[in-house]
Amino acid sequence: MSSDHKNPPSPNELSRDNDDFKECLICYDSVQSSDLLPACGDCPATMCASCGRKCNAIHKYGNDAANAVRFLADTSYDYDIMYAWCCKCHEPRPLVERSCSRDDFKLFPEWVCMDCDILRKPELEIAEIRWAADAITQAQLSGDYVKQLKAEEHQGRVFESIEDGTMGIKPCPGCGILTQRPFECGHLHCTVGGCGIDWCYFCGQAYDKASIYQHMEEAHGDVFGGIIMDRDLVALAGTDTDSDPDFDSDSQDEEEDELGALDDDKVLKAR
After folding, report:
1. Residues 146, 38: Cα–Cα separation, whole Å
2. Could you write out the DSSP letters of every residue in the chain?
3. Which of 65, 80, 170, 260 is deepest in the core (most CB within 10 A)?
4. What's the pTM?
5. 187-189/21-23 β-pairing
6. In Å, what is the CA distance from 49 to each residue of 24, 33, 39?
């Protein structure tokens, strides 16, 4: 037998030679088949090693809960949308349009999709009220009367939306059409004919595409709204109310009493 004899190529070598690439069913990157890993033990769904290390469901609940991905191979997804694992329903749900994506996105290990978010509605209402109260205080500190009026108007809309049950539905600042955010990103583009403006969901103000992302990061923490996405609902930093002679604690108490009255009213209606 000739000493030059070589062993037949391994399946991995054949795969690389044939440029056999497939998509990771989580991040949609094109990966060589030999580098894909099973998403769980009982289905053909596969993912790249990077997604395996980051998968929220695996980190939070272990490999057993990751069996929820068994249907991925037979499910079609929109490439223009980025998906994330919801830790309530254990399914990949729309997070943000790829056009709004950023390299420095935070990882949300306990992210909850918008369909499941109704369970966190009281938390979101409190976060909105805190944001509005903070904006009013900041305007008072800076002596910006116009900004204070806008913040007070926003606060009024927040209380109204809580009272009538339309929290999360906001009017387009261009045409007034009531709009519900389809994804977590706060950048909305109005599709109504004759309008077509871009605007910020969190404060309801119009911005052009070139500046809206910078606005959201500076004013709201990030494109997800910062405080609203925070599971701990940490208030926006920077306001020291104890050292502010113009801060009206009675006004704050009235706001808290009003929120409590709204909560009591909702309980009565639920009964």
Report:
1. 57
2. --TT--PPPPHHHHHHHTT-EEE-TTT--EEEGGG-EESSTTSS-EE-HHHHHH-HHHHHH-TTGGGGGGGGGG----TTEEEEE-TTT-SEEEEEEGGG--TTPPP-TT---TTTGGGGHHHHHHHHHHHHHHHHHHHHHHT-HHHHHHHHHHHHHHHHHHHHT-TTEEE-TTT--EEE-SSSSSEEE--STTT--EEETTT--B--TTTHHHHHHHHHSSTT-TTTT-TT-PPPS---GGG-TT--HHHHHHHHHHHHHHHHHHHHHH-
3. 170
4. 0.40
5. unpaired
6. 9, 12, 10
Q: How far apart are CA 253 and CA 54, in angstroms?
A: 43
Asked whether 69 and 86 are in contact (CB, 8 A), the reply is: no
Report domain extents, the chain: 11-115, 120-270
pLDDT tens per residue across all 271 residues of the chain: 444 555 555 555 544 444 578 888 777 788 888 888 776 655 667 778 777 666 555 554 444 445 555 555 555 667 677 777 777 777 777 777 776 665 555 555 566 776 776 555 666 667 777 777 888 888 889 888 888 888 888 778 777 766 655 566 788 999 988 887 777 778 898 988 889 999 998 888 999 988 998 898 888 877 877 643 433 333 322 233 333 444 444 544 554 454 444 444 433 333 3
The β-bridge partners of 171 are 178
d(CA 26, CA 53): 12
d(CA 153, CA 63): 48
Amino acid at 130: R
Tokens of residue 42, six digits: 């009982």
